[in-house]
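Human: I wish I could look at a protein chain and see how it folds. This is the protein in question:
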Amino acid sequence: MHSKIAPARAAALIAGVIGTLAAPGGALASGFLLPEASTAGIGTANAMVANPIELGAIPYNAAAMGFHDNSSLALGALMIAPSFSVNTASGNHSGTGATWVAGPMFQAAIKLNQNWRLGLGVTTPFGLETRWGYGTFPALSQSATIPLPPPLGLTTIPTGNHPATTKLEVLDFAPTGAYRVNDNLSLAAGMDIYWAKSAQLDSNLGQMSGDGIGLGFNLGAMYRIQALTLGLTYHSASTVRLGGNFTPLNTTLVMMGQLAQGQPASLNLDLPWRLQVGARYEFTKTFAAEFDWTYTGWSQFRQLVVSGDRTGGIISTETNNWNDASAFRLGLTWQVRPTTQLRCGYAYDQTGQGNGYFSARVPDSDRQTFSIGIAQGLSHGFSIEAGYMYVMGQKRNYAGGVPYSATSGVNGTTALNGQYEMSAHIVGIEALVTF
């Protein structure tokens, strides 16, 4: 730091750069949640928490392992093509990052004996990527000419904190165990080991990148009686501590002592808890339907606390104040042949983000999901599955109630006024084997 006012200016800058972390560039449920955990889930709009039949239900509810008589392995990939845009006073702008974003899907379930199963899953439950070009938000693209001591003279500096690239990918390594109590009931418990393998948070003033680890736990139960199966699963909240480096982009402000120098920086990212309850009914031996309700604890995502090594301890606290939100999912499966299954589904996700702290890094809205899928059994216990999902976000016309000023935060202000739209295509491919 070059002057006594630097910590305050640095706090405002880093808070703006990091902003509200939960941008949904790759996220396909409310907030930055990615519920897609298997190809079977993609094909049924993620209505899988009460399915005792499909191997693809295990990543959604580990208690499903208790109803499978064999060990199994599943390996696949999730591919997402998101589209984000906003119409502001400066025109229509695209906020899309990479054309396609890929994530892993892996699940192992090992039968130890008649009652016990062990599992290990790897999924990407949280993710995002958005990129807004400079000038998208006119109020954040302005500059001012100020006098500096000789020989510098008049200098033009930015007065807004324009969001640029936001990217986050969180992997979940989930070791689990399931115990089949009897023919009707299976219980499960495990850990969620979150690894934020990449985090990038940029604005026109500065950049931050880093990674981090967080821990949580999960519980599951599944009860089956004749044609009806009930399922329940819970994932605890978790905090991922992101550590990395902050790099200022405006050297003039650094020289003036109004901007933090490059330094190690960190923040705590609070991931929400998730409660899922589902009911599945087999109308015939070949046709079944499942309805799930998911409640996500976005109220955990209230603040981002930023720390910098050179500024000494906590330098900024930003409030988000999200609300808990529900999602409703319906999935259908039809066994058209002994080795061929068709799937389809529909889901409605409510956003947890209100207008009070709206962020361009999080142009979130209520969303509808439509999905189809197919599974084909092969020989020697092998099968292959594919699924497709289309996510359609509701248009969000945002008009901030708080005037923007260069000395205040950006979220929830008139600087972000505009009409936001989103959609996404999702494809999943997976190979499975039982043994």
Summary: The two ends are 62 Å apart (CA to CA). The first helix runs from residue 6 to 18. The helical segments are 6-18, 39-43, 251-255.
